[in-house]
Q: What sequence folds into this?
């Protein structure tokens, strides 16, 4: 398994973190070379759907915790002066893991590394759920996060905020309370700030602004404040029409909702007639509401980008640097780390804050559809699996302006399907502002580094291999040319 040795960085701020190592496109074992993550979520309908998808990709991560938190949209109440608000309970997580257990024997036939249901149950902890932004209580969830932050394993440790950050804030506050003022505190705080990376979806409570940033200013934050909406409730306004079919009812019914096992029986869609107990204010399930959507259109997985950012198995290398972009969006440096940014929409020609996410929708939906098949297909040969792309010259090249090069790509498929090839320049990810005239011939591409490119600028090229299976699956290789 290849170690890239690169560091996740925002060059303008000279912020560096250890890299989550790349993984092969096919089966592999979980371990130290995979992104280490803690999921925190608040039990909204889209968290539930994001969690279902997450379970199908659980083999791609070193999962260190699954923690229930609250948010400004959902809390449990305290049984006294705080009433519950849109509270969906905590039992559904274990129910979904039980349903995952029914698919687990099949999933293992298609890829190695899936955690056992027992492992997942052992990682599930209840955090600070009594109220929005509540972080005064020390909870099972906050202590679990604290213990994980303080363990001897090196970073990065990606803490994903699908809801509020209050349980994470409580964990950090407990560390501060215990060690602040001691001789080792400055060094410990620096070490933690280098280890922890927060992927924040929206600002779903006040604890990031009120506690984490003032007290832990060097913790890096990947801040998704708007791109996630393109994979959430209002996707019809964000996703280009050409990519919307994979979110509409016929695709959803064929690939997920019908005949795909116990776990996807719980996957929620628009107007499906299935209320969420406790969340009476969310009427998107009602057949007589939301009439701009068809029954069983995609509803929302607004939190899935938090872990899709770490999908290195697809070859996009997105976790190496948030500015690279991939299935979890693309980001630009800011004072706290990175904030979601724009790509040029290839359909409109305009800068579009949703497009770094929406450009991948068809690919990531087809990939999920294949894994949905894995869960109900006991024989490897009866399902589709990702092809494999490689580039002979390697993935990091350094060339002077005016130099020409031919890159030799190769594609293969474990199922014996025919493969097709495409090379394209990801102009938004590179720091060279112009476009190259790529000359392609099958899996190979020839190019010349432009004369106006200056030293240190980068050019990102994506080699894309698509198989002929159903659904059609892809694997990519990102080649980064750095100008000498």
A:
């Amino acid at each position: 398994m290849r170690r890239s040795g690169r560091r996740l960085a925002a060059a303008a701020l000279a912020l560096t973190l250890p890299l989550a190592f790349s993984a092969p496109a096919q089966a592999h074992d979980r371990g130290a070379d995979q992104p280490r993550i803690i999921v925190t979520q608040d039990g909204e309908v889209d968290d539930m759907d994001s969690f279902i998808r997450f379970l199908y990709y659980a083999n791609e991560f070193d999962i260190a915790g699954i923690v229930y938190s609250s948010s400004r949209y959902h809390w449990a109440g305290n049984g006294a002066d705080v009433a519950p608000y849109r509270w969906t309970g905590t039992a559904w997580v274990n129910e979904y893991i039980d349903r995952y257990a029914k698919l687990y024997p099949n999933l293992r036939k298609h890829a190695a590394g899936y955690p056992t249901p027992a492992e997942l149950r052992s990682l599930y902890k209840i955090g600070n759920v009594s109220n929005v932004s509540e972080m005064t209580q020390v909870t099972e969830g906050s202590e679990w996060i604290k213990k994980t932050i303080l363990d001897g394993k090196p970073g990065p440790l990606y803490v994903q905020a699908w809801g509020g950050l209050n349980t994470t804030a409580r964990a950090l506050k407990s560390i501060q309370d215990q060690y602040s003022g001691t001789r080792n505190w400055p060094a410990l705080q620096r070490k933690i700030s280098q280890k922890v990376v927060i992927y924040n979806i929206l600002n779903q409570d006040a604890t990031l602004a009120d506690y984490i940033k003032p007290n832990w200013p060097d913790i890096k934050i990947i801040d998704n404040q708007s791109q996630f909406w393109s994979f959430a409730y209002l996707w019809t306004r964000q996703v280009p029409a050409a990519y919307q079919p994979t979110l509409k009812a016929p695709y959803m019914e064929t690939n997920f909702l019908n005949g795909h096992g116990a776990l996807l029986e719980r996957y929620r869609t628009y107007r499906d007639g299935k209320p969420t107990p406790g969340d009476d204010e969310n009427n998107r399930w009602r057949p007589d509401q939301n009439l701009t959507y068809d029954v069983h259109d995609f509803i929302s997985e607004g939190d899935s980008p938090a872990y899709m950012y770490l999908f290195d198995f697809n070859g996009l290398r997105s976790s190496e640097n948030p500015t690279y972009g991939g299935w979890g969006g693309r980001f630009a440096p800011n004072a706290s780390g990175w904030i979601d940014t724009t790509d040029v929409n290839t359909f409109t020609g305009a800068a579009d804050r949703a497009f770094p996410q929406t450009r991948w929708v068809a690919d990531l939906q087809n990939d999920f559809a294949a894994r949905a098949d894995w869960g109900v297909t006991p024989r490897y040969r009866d399902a589709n699996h990702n092809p494999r792309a490689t580039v002979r010259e390697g993935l990091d090249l350094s060339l002077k302006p005016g130099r020409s090069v031919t890159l030799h790509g190769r594609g293969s498929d474990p199922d014996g399907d025919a493969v097709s090839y495409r090379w394209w320049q990801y102009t938004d990810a590179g720091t060279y502002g112009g476009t190259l005239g790529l000359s392609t011939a099958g899996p190979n591409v020839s190019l010349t580094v432009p004369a106006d490119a200056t030293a240190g600028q980068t050019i990102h090229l994506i080699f894309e291999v698509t198989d002929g299976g159903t659904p059609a699956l892809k694997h990519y290789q990102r080649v980064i040319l750095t100008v000498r």
In short: Residues 1-30 have pLDDT under 50 and may be disordered. The chain has two domains: 1-383, 387-483. The first helix runs from residue 45 to 56. The two ends are 29 Å apart (CA to CA).
